[in-house]
Automatic annotation (TrEMBL):
Protein name: DNA-3-methyladenine glycosylase I
PANTHER family: DNA-3-METHYLADENINE GLYCOSYLASE 1, DNA-3-METHYLADENINE GLYCOSYLASE I
GO MF annotations, alphabetized: DNA-3-methyladenine glycosylase activity
Main EC class the enzyme belongs to: hydrolase
Keywords: Glycosidase, Hydrolase
Length: 194
């Protein structure tokens, strides 16, 4: 933990960069319970694979513009011309497989509405307990639930939803609380006690 100028303790990844600090303080680990927000986070976690989250966060406004605000109904209709347009967009990560996955994930999100929707589906994998890390090395990168969620989403047609990526999603949307026990954010999701 690093104590900031404001006297608050944060992990190293959230301590130096103002953008990451704001993300950590105001967004990371808070519940996301709307379809569009959850679809966006699934896609951005997929784009992050192999890259830093800071890179994705800096490009998030461009991603939102490129993918119609991550409206699944709009993105589900993207065709070849849209993919080629996105491959020319310098504001986003121009990875064809990840772009195609974002379209495929939109289609799968729309399809999942027939069975209760993306939010209920994803949140049904919330574990019965959460890690209680005192050091960064105590934080797992996967869990039985993230493995199960990954498999279930793949069966439903989603891509770029591996177990590690899904654990990162679960952390980001408050399904698990991996804030270190000394963090001012521990327990801030309202789902898990501090």
């Amino acid at each position: 933990m690093i104590i900031g100028e404001d006297g608050l303790a944060r992990p190293a990844w959230a301590a130096a960069d103002p953008l990451m600090r704001t993300y950590y303080d105001r967004e990371w680990g808070l519940p996301v319970t709307d379809e569009q927000g959850l679809y966006e986070r699934i896609c951005l976690e997929g784009f992050q694979a192999g890259l830093s989250w800071a890179t994705i966060l800096r490009k998030r406004p461009a991603f939102r513009a490129a993918f119609a605000g991550f409206d699944p109904d709009v993105v589900a209709l993207f065709g070849t011309a849209d993919v080629e347009r996105l491959m020319q967009d310098p504001g986003i990560i121009r990875n064809r497989l990840k772009i195609l996955a974002t379209v495929k994930n939109a289609q799968a999100t729309v399809e999942l509405r027939k069975d209760g929707g993306l939010v209920d589906f994803v949140w049904s994998f919330r574990p019965s307990s959460t890690p209680r890390p005192t050091e960064v090395t105590d934080i797992p990168t996967q869990s039985a639930e993230s493995v199960a969620l990954s498999k279930a989403l793949r069966k439903r047609g989603f891509s770029f939803v591996g177990p590690t990526t899904m654990f990162a999603l679960m952390e980001a949307v408050g399904m698990v609380d991996t804030h270190l026990l000394g963090s001012h954010r521990r327990g801030s999701s309202g789902i898990w006690p501090g």
